[in-house]
Amino acid sequence: FKNINELKIMILFIKESVQFVFLVLIFSLFTSYSFAVSFEKNCKVPKGSIKIIKIDGEKYTQFILKDKDKGGCSTDKKSRSGAPYWERTELAQKNTLSKNKRHEISFKVKIVEGFKGERETFFQIHNYNKSAKSVYPSVMLKFDDGFYASTSTNPSNLQLDFMYADQKHFHFNKKNIPLANLKNKWQYFKVILSKIDKNTETGYVTIYLNNDIIFNEIKTYFPKKGTPRIKYGIYRPGNLKGNNTSKILYSKINVNSKK
């Protein structure tokens, strides 16, 4: 340094820079937090259909659904939506996702067996209320051939079902992401849910698969009478002619929430 004044200026600059970085870190700490979400069985599930297993020292949740494994939720025994009954083995989030925050949900899955049937769902953002009255899911990730026929020989593709109005769903079938390309390999998903506008009851959903955006800012309806929560496992329509056995492994689910 040419003189003492230049040195003082440099020291002052360094101190202010350190203070700025410190404030940014503190702000980030109070506006964003990441946590592993807790889950529970909100309905009775088929015996032995959910297990915790270890692979290379890491815990995973294994779901297995066999033919005629009817779910234990009240609506599963009923004929609805083109099926005589519904098969289910799922876990549901214990708490809920605040509508006033942006949520980044990340997890990895390995599809080991099956998922060849009709409308086989493995991840949902459902809507919860304490009265337990019927509130439809806003987001469903599933595999389907697009023909609503489990006897079809057409390949199953990754599909997003989303609610665009109360009790009204639309689906995007990704023909370029067939089931065969994803089986028996770890697949990394990230689901981003925006803050939800309580007046219009809508938010935006973006989904990444292995760091590639596959569904971008899909405008989605989230009813006032419910609060979003995650459900995951296997959920599908029953079939009197028989369904395949499906098996999927799930890592822990992490949620990063920001105001």
Structure, briefly:
This protein has 259 residues and is mainly β.
Walkthrough of the structure:
The chain is mostly beta strands and 259 residues long. Helix content is 11%, strand content 47%. The chain is built from 1 helix and 16 strands. The strands form 2 sheets. Strands 1, 3, 4, 6, 11, 12, 13, 15 and 16 form a 9-stranded antiparallel beta sheet that branches. A 7-stranded antiparallel beta sheet has the order 2-5-14-7-8-9-10, with no helix packed on it. A hairpin with a 2-residue loop joins strand 12 (202-209) and strand 13. Residues 21-31 have low confidence and may be disordered.
Key terms:
259 residues, seven-stranded antiparallel sheet, globular
Per-chain topology:
Blueprint: H1 4-31, E1 32-36, E2 39-40, E3 50-55, E4 58-65, E5 86-93, E6 102-113, E7 120-128, E8 139-144, E9 157-165, E10 168-178, E11 187-193, E12 202-209, E13 212-221, E14 227-237, E15 246-250, E16 254-258
Antiparallel strand pairs: 1-16, 2-5, 3-4, 4-15, 5-14, 6-11, 6-15, 6-16, 7-8, 7-14, 8-9, 9-10, 11-12, 12-13
Strand content: over 45%
Rg over C-alpha atoms, rounded to the nearest angstrom: 22 Å
Element order: H for helix, E for strand: HEEEEEEEEEEEEEEEE
Q: Give the averaged pLDDT, no decimals.
A: 87
pLDDT < 50 stretches: 21-31
Number of strands: 16
N-to-C terminal Cα separation, in Å?
45 Å
Helix content bin: 10-25%
- Tell me, what's the shape? globular
* Structural class computed from helices and strand pairing: mainly beta
Q: Tally the helices: what do you get?
A: 1
Largest sheet: 9 strands, antiparallel
